[in-house]
Amino acid sequence: MIEKGHKNWRLEDIDFSMLRRELVVNDERLFYLLASASFVEILSEIYTDNLIEHYRGNDDAALWLKQTWQREELQHGRSLKAYVKAVWPEFDWEASFSGFAAEYGLLCSMSNLESSRALEMMARCVVETGTSTLYRCLYDYAKEPVLKHILANIKADEVRHYAKFRRLFIELNHAENKGALAALHVIWKRMLEIHGEDGYIAFKHAHRCRCGASESLDRDWIGFKNGLNALVRRHYPFHMAVEMLLSPVPLSSRMKRMLGFPLTGLARIAVIIQGAAF
Ligand SMILES: [Fe+2]
Ligand SMILES: [Fe+2]
């Protein structure tokens, strides 16, 4: 099921002969970011099965999740995996991913979903806001042309995913009539999870395959987080993130505009404070 007017892309069409490895091979921070993103994207198959089960009987949601969303998320993971393997061929991606999948897969279950179908769509909007803005941030940062091509494709997909989940939230919420407070609560919960375990688990398994069972894991993790913080401060689209988060919330446009400016400022301050805390 491909949306009208949308031109699909394929990993097979990415021209890896254009790769300029020298522009990226020494970028440790980018290595961990791309390896971690490839793990999480490929593992999205687990969430999809949970989600499809949650929307059984709602063909619009269930069919789109199965036929479009799952396929595109897997392609994101496969493209990032192919890129990591092309730039860092000595890295044993398969061994690292199997360690990550075994540990992280245990954390993915139906109990992570919102019991309300509308609010789970709100939660999906938060996740897709995270991926849309992350890939836009990386696209802005990246210099290597093949990576830029892959990231341009992925970030466009993520924005479309967000738009679909937003529409599904609004439709489902006509019946459920959840208010702004319930929607804001979901945003808050999911925002807290962004600093949760998946990033550390992915880093740990990538680090293990790259450096062996090393005592430097915790020190390197802190170094990576510091580097990430600097990248986010410089390249992250804070305003876009706040606009996307607030857009589905059942509030007036005036209220969203009033909240948008201070929330963008707060998000920037939170990143600075978090950076200072390391
Ligand atoms: Fe994705
Ligand atoms: Fe997505």
Summarize the structure.
The protein has 278 residues and is mainly α. It has helices at residues 28-42, 44-54, 59-87, 93-104, 117-141, 145-176, 180-194, 197-211, 217-235, 238-246, 253-277.
Brief descriptors of the model:
278 residues; mainly alpha; Ribonucleotide Reductase, subunit A; binds fe (ii) ion
Structural notes for this entry:
This protein is an all-alpha fold. It has one domain (24-277): Ribonucleotide Reductase, subunit A (Orthogonal Bundle). Helix content is 74%, strand content 0%. It has eleven helices and no strands. The chain has helices spanning 28-42, 44-54, 59-87, 93-104, 117-141, 145-176, 180-194, 197-211, 217-235, 238-246, 253-277. Helix 1 (28-42) runs antiparallel to helix 3. The longest helix has 32 residues, at 145-176. It is globular, with a radius of gyration of 19 Å. The relative contact order is 0.12. The model has no long low-confidence stretch (mean pLDDT 89). One fe (ii) ion binds at residues 73, 128, 131, 158, 161. One fe (ii) ion (FE2) binds next to helix 3 and helix 6.
